[in-house]
Specification:
Belongs to the IPP transferase family. It contains 13 helices and eight strands. By secondary structure, it is of the alpha/beta class.
Amino acid sequence: MHVLVFCMNKKFSIVISGPTATGKTDFATNLANDLPIEIVNADIGSFYTSLTVGTAKPAWKDSPIPHHFFDVIDDTTSWTAPQFREKLELLLQQIWSRGNIPVIVGGSAFYIQAFFYKNHELLHPTTELMQSLESQSAQDLWEQLNEVDPARSAKIDPHDHYRLVRALAIWHTQGQKPSDFVPIFQPLSSFYFLTLTRDRDQLYDMINQRVQIMMQAGWLQEVQELARDAQWKDFLLKKKMIGYDILLEYLQTPDIHKNLDESLATIAQLTRNYAKRQITFLHRLQKNVQESLQTNAKHRALPYEIKECNLTLCDLSLYIKQLSDFALGAQTRAIEKKIHNL
């Protein structure tokens, strides 16, 4: 039984993120025992109807909990962060109108960030420009960026190839400094922002196990089916969605040179590397959100909580209780404020 019917006019969200394979989905699902929730996907792979096994997509259609943003893209198009935020804002209103709490769950950090920050809608860089930038070393890119926009280069690690490419793509496409397009802090509601982690050895073991489990579930067959469509094949190779490109390359390799174990080891290593990048990004995001709340008078009074939970060490039920108690407190404060304003 839910401890409270959330029927008043309130705006509160739970945001759960963390590196791949930490157990975000299970954690979010357990919240339904105490709170009236609806789960909102923020993992890019699960947007796509055709990508299921290799994205570890949950069996969301069989769940009694309402799920959103799963299997919403049938082709090879993508959602930008501003597009995701726009769709999310509309969805949150619908969930609140039903008296439920949205639980935004995923490891695609730029979509998680979109809940807190409003990004500028930018022109798309050309394929030729992106290929040119991506072929250059991080050091060369950083020096170019530092020359045109020292303020932006000072905030990007000289080894962060992805963000350097993105910044210079903005410069060449928009004709303005990337620092002119700093995201605006504008959270969509009061929130509980929880990052899940695990001890490194356990996390890496879980990643290795997940690769094997997905293979047993038919991942290679899923990729074989996608490879029959030239558009999907090209999309997966360019998108570099971890594992799909490696398995496509494996399928294209002559039999005499095929080595599935080697390909799976590469996928596991790339996934571990990705998990490290996720951890770094989320630490920075939590720090930025905290600083934005402290320096922005408009949002300073916003009810919020920012936490990190190590699932290797902590009592999972205790964290779920703390989160549920905070959610109830946020709703109680909303009622008191509403009554006070009558």
